[in-house]
Amino acid sequence: MPVSNDGPGSNDGPGSNDRPGSNDTLIGRWVHSYEEDHDGVSVFRRGDFPFPPARGRRGVEFGADGAFVEWAIGRGDASEARPGRWEPVDDPGAIARADAAGTALRVVRVERDRLEAVVGSGP
Question: What residue segments make up the domains of the chain, in order of their start?
Answer without folding.
Answer: 23-121
